Amino acid sequence: MWDKKRIAFVSNSLWSIFHFRINIIRLLINKGFDVTVLAPPDDSFIENIAAEKLNFIPLKHLHPRKMLPWQEIQLFDELKKHYTALRPDLVFHYTIKPNIIGSMAAGAAKVKSVAVITGLGYTLVNNRVVSFFVRPLYRMALQHPEEVWFLNEGDREFFVSAKMTPFNKTFILPGEGVDTNFFTPAKHNSKNNTALRFLMISRILNNKGVNEFVEAAQRLAGQHPGIQFILMGKHEPDGPDAVPKVKLAEWAQKNSIIYLPYSKEVRDEIAKADCVVLPSYAEGLSVSLMEAAAMAKPLIASDVNGCRELVIDNQSGYLCRPRDVNDLVEKMEKLISLSKEARLAMGNNGRKLIIEKYAVDIINEIYLRKINVHLQAG
């Protein structure tokens, strides 16, 4: 049926490939596609690559954190060479450098591609210097893909209004998909309202709202003894917006929060939580919120793109104003005041939303339909 078509996935990390896109990759392989992943090498995923029977091409010149002209020229040449040799029928690009440099390389190699904008990035919206250089690059690069996908309507509006891509070339993909048979409701943890556990799962970055979460925890801890505040996520100390390691250690030492490095067993921590919090400044479509909602946990999240789509305010959780600790504390207080039954009802409302709109089967079907359309277009 598919005549052994070749599909390539390109990202700035193997971690994101295996964390966000492995379900669609497995499905494509099962349907007879030849799937190749291109990303910077990462020894911690060697076993995963072998287990999934993936074709893997390590990218030597994709440096996620720095954008230097000579490095991007090297990356362009590297990708163009691989595309010319591989001749994929369709390439999916994720994250900023693959979306820009990869789209240009695919155009030069006369290979079809789709750019998936997984989030704006706080700096693109708020850093004038970065925006000054990046927006023209997007305008040039996004001429080449067949389509430009976004995870929420707000991000699409931003790109279209900034004339980085025309509206008629865009499409909304409702997230990366959640396996609702894996992320299932667990037995409720708390016996009363004095032992609640608030959990935040994200990279340890300022723009994720980590500082606001910790300050809210500090304020609430004195008023509600016994309540726990858990911060779980990958700490990337070299990132431009990373929370300093010394600050993270200081928080843990003062018992403001319990810090847990990111683990593949994230489901176990969600199961222990009574509420999952994400006071982020902007998201593509938050995977941690989707996973938590799938497990029927109430949510508290910022009223921003990529979060508001996943919270039915006052029904599956609460939306709070971004960068507003007072409002975050108020919404956490509201959650604390709820009965166990009310929290359970909120969680069930959230799971229903995920099943109806964001389940992995829905997303996979969209991918298959879109791939079929682009392959038939010749």
Description:
By secondary structure, the protein is an alpha/beta fold. It contains 15 helices and 13 strands. It has helices at 14-20, 22-30, 46-52, 69-86, 96-108, 122-126, 128-141, 153-161, 210-223, 245-253, 266-272, 287-294, 325-337, 340-357, 360-376, and strands spanning 6-10, 34-39, 55-58, 90-94, 113-117, 147-150, 170-172, 197-201, 228-233, 258-261, 275-278, 299-302, 317-320. The strands form two sheets. A seven-stranded parallel β-sheet has the order 3-2-1-4-5-6-7, with helices on both faces. β2, α3 (46-52) and β3 form a beta-alpha-beta unit. The chain is globular and about 60 Å long.
Keywords:
alpha/beta; 13 strands; single chain; six-stranded parallel sheet; 378 residues; seven-stranded parallel sheet; globular
Topology pattern, helix = H, strand = E: EHHEHEHEHEHHEHEEHEHEHEHEEHHH
Tell me the span between the first and last alpha carbons: 15 Å
Strand order of the largest sheet: 3-2-1-4-5-6-7
Strand content: 15-25%
Mean pLDDT: 91
Unreliably modeled segments = none
The share of residues in helices is 40-55%
Contiguous helical run count = 15
Estimated structural class: alpha/beta
Largest sheet: 7 strands, parallel
Q: Give the overall shape.
A: globular
